[in-house]
Amino acid sequence: MRTNYQIKLITLIVLLLLTHHPAVAEALTPPSIVVTQDRTTVSVAWSPVPSANGYRLFYASYPYTGPDSTQSIDLDGGATSISAELWDGAAFYIAVTAHNDTASSDFSNIELFFLSTAPLLDADALPVTGTSWYKPPVSITWHWQLKGEVNTSYPAKLYDIDLFNSSAALINTLKASGKKVICYFSAGSYEDFREDKDKFKTAELGNALVDRLNERWLDIRSLNVAGIMISRLNLAALKGCDGVEPDNMDAYLNNSGFDLSARDQLAFNKFIANEAHKRGLSVGLKNNMEQIPELIDFFDFSVNEQCHEFHECNVLRGFIINGKPVLNAEYQQSYVDNPAEREALCNISNGIQFSTLILSRNLDDSLRFSCL
Fold it and tell me: For the stretch 222-231, what's the b/e string if a residue is b when 16 or more beta carbons lie within 10 angstroms of its beta carbon?
């Protein structure tokens, strides 16, 4: 069963194809587009296509509202970019084709953008309203796997998987089986293996994380970093994720290499949550238990590691009280080796309505026990 989002996106793509009539001739290579934005100004640039003498830009409003929302603009000549000033809250799908006198290309990559005049990073921001998104219930069953081929066979109601490494087809398969899909990405750190790594500026990269030497803390005050995170949220929406798990949301408590304050962290975390909700995405708070009182109204669930091992679970009870689940993972070897200790852990976890898994630290599905 397809989701409403996927049906709308498929309908949009079909509609775009129907409004585009390529002649039978030697095919042109589709262009590749990049969308950038500055408050309410959006710019689209695309790669030049050999033998093309013009381009056509297609756009449709988000969320898709029907055929009347699909429009196109002819851009003849050698132009390979266009900019426009739109309005606060404007949100559109966008794609480009190339053409000449005898042929037209297939569509470029389809991108999605949202525009806002509001300050991107504001520690005093309020939660956004006016949109709807998935809100997972307390004690939901879940599976967390960020490495390896995702095991789709668990009877869990919610899957938490990697945003970049998971295809839209995988996400569609999980959702078609009745599961909800949360997509993981690191919001507070730079990873040198991600496809968008070259978008970060050198000055935005801080110290290496203690346990992950291929990751570096980010300067979360940077508007460029904020823009990259917006692109990641757009990718999550395009792939059909129901929500996101932004990681490393506590740079101000670590030796990041930047002079970050608690208000800097609040501003960044509120920004991530609000931008996720604008896109109809659920969002979880990872790390940063110190700021739960200020952030609990912005986040829909918590993803926690080892609160039982480190005796920190009471700090997270506010999520349960507010009808929001705590998705907890434990790695301690004694929980694996000792069935009695594992049973005691699960009895405590179930008693406080946490959704607890015992997993391998690699999150690669090599080990899994569920308390629910």
Answer: beebbebbbb
The more confident residue out of 326 and 120 is 326
Answer yes or no: pTM beyond 0.85.
yes
Cα distance between residue 275 and residue 159, in whole Å: 21
How far apart are the C-alpha atoms of 306 and 297, rounded to whole Å?
Answer: 23
Render 200-214 in DSSP notation, one character per residue.
Answer: S-GGGEEEEETTEEE
Taking the C-alpha atoms of residue 97 and residue 109, their distance in angstroms, rounded to an integer, is 10
Closest CA to 281 of 178, 139, 146, 184: 184
With contact defined as beta carbons under 8 Å apart, do 228 and 267 qualify? no
Cβ-based neighbour number of residue 362 at 10 Å: 13
Domains delineated in the chain = 4-114 (2.60.40.10), 142-370 (3.20.20.70)
What number is the average pLDDT over the span 264-283? 97
Strands, DSSP E only, in the chain?
Answer: 33-38, 41-46, 54-61, 70-76, 81-85, 91-99, 111-114, 142-145, 158-162, 180-186, 189-191, 205-209, 212-218, 243-247, 282-286, 301-305, 326-330, 355-359, 368-370
Q: Say if residues 127 and 277 touch (Cβ distance below 8 Å).
A: yes
274 CA to centre of own chain: 12
Is there a contact between 31 and 48 (Cβ–Cβ < 8 Å)? yes
CA 24 – CA 53 distance, rounded (Å): 17
In the chain, what's the furthest Cα-to-Cα distance?
A: 75
pLDDT tens readout for residues 189-206: 999 999 999 999 999 999
Q: Provide the strand spans (E) within 219-330.
A: 243-247, 282-286, 301-305, 326-330
- What confidence score (pLDDT) does residue 57 get? 96
Q: Round to whole Å and give the CA distance between 79 and 96.
A: 12
Q: Is 106 helix (H, G, I), strand (E, B) or coil?
A: coil
